[in-house]
Design brief:
By secondary structure, the protein is α/β, with parallel strands linked by helices. The chain folds into two domains: 264 residues, Alpha-Beta Barrel (TIM Barrel); 86 residues, no CATH class. Helices cover 34% and strands 20% of the residues. It contains 17 helices and 21 strands. Strands 1, 2, 3, 4, 5, 18, 19, 20 and 21 form a nine-stranded mixed sheet that branches. The chain has a five-stranded parallel sheet with strand order 6-7-8-9-10. Strands 13-16-14-15 form a four-stranded antiparallel sheet, with no helix packed on it.
Length: 485
Amino acid sequence: MLVFRGAEVYPGDGPPFRADVGVADGRIAAIGPRVEGDVVDAEGLMLCPGFVDLHAHSALEPFADPLLTPKILQGFTTEVICPDGLAPAPVEDHEARRAYLRALEGEGPPEWTWTTFAEYLDALPATAPTLVPSAPHGAIREVCDGDVEAMRRETRLAFEAGARMLSFGLVYMPGAFAETEELVAVSRVAAEFGAPLVPHVRNEGAGVLDAVREMIQVSEQSGAPLHVSHLKSLAGEELLDPLLDLVDGAGATFDQYPYGAGATLLASLLPPWAQRGGAEATLARARDPESRRRIAGDVAVGLPGWENQLGTLGPANVVVAGRTIADHGGDPVETVLDLLLESELAAPMIIHYAGEDAVRKVAAHRRQLVGSDGIFGAHPHPRLFGTAPRFLGRFALREGLVPVEEAVARLTARAADLLGLADRGRIEVGRRADLVLLDPVRYVDTATYEDPMRSPDGVVGVWVAGEAVVRDGVVTGARPAGVLR
């Protein structure tokens, strides 16, 4: 038996206590004042359940790095994939889907061998953390060409294959064209499985309150619980209090990455009509002089219901490959369109929208949970490497913004409960031994926007199903997990 000797145990749903914790056969076998076995010295250290990342763009990265190194090095042992309604499957036109997803999910393997959602899950390799799939509304809508009954059938197949949530991306293609009635019809399938709805709402700018109200309506009419992805306001801090009150009053939860900047597709700066028809159609419009003029006019004056991030936040707050759009000089819309053409839509962006006070207000709310929204790449957003240590290490351990046991609960037990994962999220006898051993003095985020690929200090070890995947801040190479089916 592996024994963590003298740890300060944070069980996931209660106050900490000092104890020995024994692990055998992948499970927590004993908790007490003196457990015998092969000892890991945990004196002065925190022992927590493995962290759960509720929003991870890790659908294709396992084919390149099955360890998902930036994630396990901060303590994430479970990740929810296929958020925002986006996924590699179900799929018919593989190259078109790959082109659209490239900036968020990467390339994946040279050949996509799958068509159905189940086949995609089967193709995923063994990984260090567990991957929990979401049923992706946008991908399903694309293969069903908007046929609602066909979408309901595909959604049911995704849940039968192992999905635990139903994700929506109502700013991405083709989800942006879905009417509320369609969302309700598809969400009723999620309700049959007791699964939550997890939307990137239709507007996170000036229309964010109406956008969240729409999903509250969908939840109430379908009977499926609501969990809002990466809750934020792109249109100023004055909307935060009414937004948080709205979510609280509806009994919904939400996840947050603890930063004042987001990261997504550069193409999402375009109005919806300019993205209709997929990657090739979008690129054709980016080349067409008349379409370019029309896009510039829409950015200048806005469109009803469109969040218009470039027009709202300005070119100085949009960063591509380390340079703002303003740094390029010239017309900002022309610059965006040229970058999209140069990258064939593969350009991601970082977009700054909130100050630190706003970030902390959201983080302190009782319904907040944690999702990194981590996107892999050559110069990623620091949230890929720093989400858990920023929330737990900086906000809780150092600043006291949230009590430490509360922060641990949000990263573990409450997230597991949302997903219906009864085998993990708590340090209890019989539970799966997904564990994180931390030095609370050293555990803090070190990744920055300028130097984002820095893992945190203070991670003594990470175990998945009782097997060490990190020792002294170094990955072991073990891959004891994979996709949860």
